[in-house]
């Protein structure tokens, strides 16, 4: 079933305003949640809205207060967000960097104690559309679900990393966890009582399993890093890179044992024009893209570039209506009743 994008926007905004988000916060959160669905990241779309409503109602996402500027100099900023809505905070950070990079080659911001920001891929286009290279990492120091290679104790979490690479055509939009999947993905499987497509997890003894229940059992299991048993040290290495950028640079890490409702964020933008030049940059990237596209692929199916399917999904759903996670409106029905807001009709 598909739903008009405008109807979902009105519905989502109304629920967020009902629990106390102001107009700007509700607009930013709505845009990012729906963008996740448009890009095909269903567990970070309207399915996740009920989590935000619970967190705002419980005081875990704050809707009042100001961003604290910890440090500011040309090309660098450090903020502490004090659990203000992550989508709104990232919108403010994006505006700052876009203004900053007009005068310099690169600009970077770190954000401590930011509430959940959602789908990283959604934040990339405002930069790539301007010909800028962007990288974004975020992680949660209050959650540990991934063990070191050969270990059984969770020490980091799924640590997504994202990069937007401009081309003369559609941008390359990379967004992936450094583990086999996100925490939300495994929560979704567990809620449905389904086994995983593969042995993506480890039980408490370190044995591979396809049972998502091991993540909530006692003792808890863990999520495998990218590369799994044989090459998981590679994914774990990228996970440590994310920890250094998102937590160590922000000064908001695991030492203080924070709860699960705050994140550390690293966002950096680079202007290719101020290095070898935009033309050289785009010539190189476009050559690489054309080389990939020239490959006929296995069984006549050409290789897919990062973000290609997501952008096609967005265009399709904006035209024909948005597809939601099967459980999204079921999870939101109680909130809609409390707010007196009718559920969207497909």
Can you list the strand order of the major beta sheet?
2-3-4-13-5-8-9
Q: Which stretches are low in confidence, meaning pLDDT under 50 for 5 or more residues running?
A: none
β-strand percent reads 15-25%
What do we call the CATH topology?
Answer: Ribosomal Protein S8, Chain: A, domain 1
Q: Which radius of gyration do the C-alpha atoms yield?
A: 20 Å
Q: How much is the average pLDDT?
A: 96
Distance between the termini: 6 Å
| Largest sheet properties | 7 strands, mixed
**Secondary structure: helix percent:** 25-40%
Beta-strand segment tally: 14
Into how many domains do the coordinates divide?
Answer: 1
Series of H and E elements: EHHHEEHEHEEEEEHEEEHEHHEH
* The named CATH superfamily: Malate/L-lactate/L-sulpholactate dehydrogenase, NADPH binding domain
Name some characteristics of this structure.
346 residues; alpha+beta; Ribosomal Protein S8, Chain: A, domain 1; seven-stranded mixed sheet; 10 helices; globular; oxidoreductase
Account of the protein in words:
The radius of gyration is 20 Å and the shape is globular. Helix content is 38%, strand content 17%. The protein has one domain (2-277, 315-334): Ribosomal Protein S8, Chain: A, domain 1, CATH 3.30.1370.60. The model has no long low-confidence stretch (mean pLDDT 96). Helix 1 crosses helix 2. With 346 residues, the protein is α+β, with helices and mostly antiparallel strands. It has helices spanning 5-18, 23-38, 49-57, 86-100, 125-128, 183-192, 228-248, 278-294, 308-320, 328-339; strands spanning 2-3, 68-73, 76-80, 106-114, 133-139, 146-147, 154-156, 161-165, 172-176, 201-202, 208-209, 222-223, 263-270, 322-323. The longest helix is centred in the C-terminal third of the chain and has 21 residues, at 228-248. The strands form 4 sheets. A 7-stranded mixed β-sheet has the order 2-3-4-13-5-8-9, with helices on both faces. Strands 11-10-12 form a 3-stranded antiparallel β-sheet, with no helix packed on it. Strand 3, helix 4 (86-100) and strand 4 form a beta-alpha-beta unit.
């Amino acid at each position: 079933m598909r739903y008009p994008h405008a109807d979902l926007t009105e519905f989502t905004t109304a629920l967020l305003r009902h629990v106390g988000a102001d107009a700007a916060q509700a607009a930013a959160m709505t845009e990012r949640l729906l963008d996740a669905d448009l890009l095909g990241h269903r567990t970070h779309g309207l399915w996740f809205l009920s989590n935000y409503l619970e967190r705002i109602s419980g005081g875990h996402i704050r809707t009042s207060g100001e961003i604290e500027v910890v440090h500011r100099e040309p090309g660098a900023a450090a903020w502490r967000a004090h659990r203000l809505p992550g989508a709104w905070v990232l919108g403010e950070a994006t505006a700052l960097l876009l203004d900053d990079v007009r005068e310099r080659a690169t600009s970077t911001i770190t954000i401590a104690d930011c509430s959940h920001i959602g789908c990283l891929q959604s934040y990339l286009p405002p930069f790539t559309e301007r010909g800028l290279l962007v990288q974004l990492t975020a992680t949660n120091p209050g959650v540990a679900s991934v063990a070191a290679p050969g270990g059984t104790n969770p020490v980091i979490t799924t640590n997504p990393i994202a990069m937007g690479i401009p081309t003369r055509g559609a941008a390359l939009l990379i967004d992936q966890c450094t583990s086999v999947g996100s925490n939300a993905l495994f929560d979704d499987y567990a809620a449905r009582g389904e086994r995983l497509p593969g042995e993506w997890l480890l039980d408490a003894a370190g044995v591979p399993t396809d049972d998502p229940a091991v993540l909530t059992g006692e003792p808890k299991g863990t999520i495998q890093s990218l590369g799994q048993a044989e090459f998981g040290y590679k994914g774990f290495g990228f996970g440590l890179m994310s920890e250094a950028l998102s937590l160590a640079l922000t000064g908001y890490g695991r030492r203080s044992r924070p709860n699960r409702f705050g994140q550390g964020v690293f966002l950096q933008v680079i202007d290719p024009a101020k290095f070898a030049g935009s033309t050289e940059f785009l010539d190189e990237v476009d050559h690489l893209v054309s080389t990939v596209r020239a490959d006929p692929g296995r069984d006549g199916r050409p290789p897919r570039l990062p973000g290609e399917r997501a952008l096609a999904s967005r265009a399709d759903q904006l035209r024909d209506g948005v597809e939601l996670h099967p459980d999204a409106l079921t999870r939101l029905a109680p909130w809609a009743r409390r707010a007196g807001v009718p559920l969207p009709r497909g």
